[in-house]
Amino acid sequence: MSHTEDESRLxxxxxxGTQEMLSREGTTPTERHIEEGDILGRSEGxxxxxxxxxxxxxxxxxxxxxxxxPQHPSTHGVLRIMMELDGETVLRAKPIIGYLHTGMEKTGExxxxxxxxxxxxxxxxxxxxxxxxxxxxxxxxxxGVEIPERATWIRMLMIELNRVSSHLLWLATNGMDLxxxxxxxxxxxxxEVVLDFLEKVTGLRMNHNYIRPGGVAADxxxxxQDDVEAICQAIPPRLAEYDDLFTGQPIFRERTExxxxxxxxxxIASSATGPILRSTGVPWDLRRTMPYxxxxxxxxDVVVGSYGDSFDRxxxxxxxxxxxxxxxxxxxxxxxxxxxxxxxxxxxxxxRARIDESMEALIHHFKIFTxxxxxxxxxxxVAIESxxxxxxxxxxxxxxxxxxxxxxxxPSFNNLQSMATMVHGGLVADAVAIISSIDxxxxxxxx
Length: 447
What we know:
Blueprint: H1 3-14, H2 29-35, H3 39-44, E1 64-68, E2 80-86, E3 89-96, H4 104-108, H5 113-120, H6 128-143, H7 149-177, H8 181-202, E4 211-212, E5 215-216, H9 224-247, H10 250-256, H11 264-269, H12 275-278, H13 286-289, H14 310-334, H15 352-355, H16 359-371, E6 378-386, E7 389-397, E8 405-409, H17 411-415, H18 419-423, H19 428-438, H20 442-445
């Protein structure tokens, strides 16, 4: 086999088909506008974005298409990005996904509702408790069960701690992407404090399966107030140190200010949510705009930016940690006594102690964990604010113990649509900072 034939065979074997970026001649005008980040032009049927100083009519022999990923440390997972460059300037960009496809949504249709939380918790592995919560809320909406107050406050406590740990990890990896290796160490160090508490409560550091339909798996352990207070005292001073390390640091500001800018209109057109949308100045946070749990009973501010650039996205996440600490303190002060899960026998298994004493309790326990519980026919969509944006769960029940249809609205999937707009016209060296500022989790992109 000649070298050319061997090369052609390798290209064919690794091709991702229509997902890949084609030459300009082989790309339709609509698709090319999308790849150039012209999201507003696509939605309105006309070119609305200013191409700026970029000569989009540059000859193809003067440009080069390159691959970034799927095995690249700065893509934050197995994400492949194809970019067309004119020198060092990015003309077009296209994310190619599917390298981490696990079929979780389809798998979820073959699991009972009581097993479902174990499945969805693996989608966004940096905020697993949010996945468990949205699935549980959707199931409970179909069931029509009422959740005890203590269980709801426990859920708020746990997901806000999870938001803190997720943003701390982003600060760490973002620092690494921009060659600030000290931040990598500091971010992981502070995150460990939070993960230690999550492990103490749930038994695991990730994929907890703690928030379940009907409440939570177990009550908070003795001394949890002291642990939470220790976290609330330890994190804020460290955030002040991050401010010194990053916010006023000239090199960091030059790498992020004015880099990867996106307008509010373009962010909305690409369905971006979370820190990306809020960085453009849009105060859209489901905890405030469409309150769930008891978020309407606690005080916190929705953090927004002004310019929609990488620096604003950094500033939004840093200050959202402060707001989460503020919420955690209020939740800890208002935690009531009571049940940590509903006492509806249809949903909740009997206490472990009763299984040893009662044959009926043993049979009840066996049936719930082998057959599951039946959910009334219907469909529902529930959305919550995860660290990455709107996390939604669409459930359809046919009255059986398993979902007829499970679909997750993953914020990382939608946020990736805004990447082409952010990198268009920028330097390829800035692509790393821009991708990092999106904070994608490929586990929830490739479901």
